[in-house]
Design a protein that fits this description.
Layout: E1 20-25, E2 46-51, H1 68-83, E3 88-93, H2 95-110, E4 118-121, H3 140-149, H4 161-179, E5 196-205, H5 213-217, E6 223-231, H6 237-240, H7 242-260
Parallel strand pairs: 1-2, 1-3, 3-4, 4-5, 5-6
Helix pairs in contact: 1-2
Domain Thioesterase: 21-248
Protein name: Thioesterase
Pfam family, one: Thioesterase
Amino acid sequence: MTTTAPTSCLGRAPREGARLRLFCFHHAGGGASFFSSWPGRLPFDVDVLPVQLPGREARYREPRFQDAGEVVEALGRELAPRLDEGPWAAYGHSMGAMVAFALTAARLRAGGRPPEALFLGAYAAPYVSPSLPPPDRYDDHELARLLVDFGGLSPRFLGRDDWLRVLLPILRDDLRVCATHHRAGLPDPDDERARLPLHVEAFAGVDDPLVTPGAVRAWGRYVNSFRMTTVPGGHFFPRQAPDPFFDRLSPSLARLLAGLGGPPSAPG
C-alpha cells in the first residue's frame, strides 16, 4: 500500500504500481468530476489523476484563482513532487489545455521531469483569437444561455437563479484566468528556437461552436512534435461523443506505455 498522502489539488494519492500517471486539468467552470469515468476507459496501467482547482466541488470553500500566472505557480509548486516521481502525461480540456501546457513549459524551464506527452482538447492556441468569452461581457442570464448553447450547462439551470449564483462566479473567475494567459510564461510562437521539446496531441470537436480545428491546430507552433485529431462532438466531446474520443486517446496512451517498457500491471 502507498504511504504518500494526497495533495490538496488531487483527490487521492497516485496509485502504486501504475506505470504512467495522467494528470487531467478541467475546463472553465468545471471540476475534477469531469474525469470521473476516465479510469474505466483507459489502459489499466494509466493512473488517471484529475487536478482540482480551488473554489469548486470538494474545494468549494477555498478562494479561487483569477490569474493564469498564479495558477501555474501554485500548481507547479504543489505537483512538482508527483511529477518528478516517475513517467507522466497530461490532458487538459478547454481552459485546462492552457493550464496544462503552461505548467509543462514552466517545469521545462526549471529543469523538471518532462511529460511523455501532452494531450490538449477544445482550446485554441493562446496567440489565436480567444477560445472563451471575456469574463464580463455578458450578464448572468446571457452567460447562462451561452453555456447551454455550447453544451456546458444543462437547460434546467435556466431560471434557477439560486443555482446560477453558485456556478457563474466560478465560471467568471476561470474566464479571468483564460484572459490572463499572457502571464503564464508561454513560449513565443514566432520563435522557432523557443519551441518546446514536447510531443503534443491536440483534439478538436468537429461541431465545436467555440473553437475551430484550425485554432486548435495552431498549438503546433509551440512544440517540436505535434499531431492533430478531429473527433465527433462539440466543445465537450469527451462527454458528448466519448467512444470516438477514447478510441483515439487510448491507443496513444498504450503507445506511451509500450515505450516505457516493462510488463503490464495486473488489475485487482
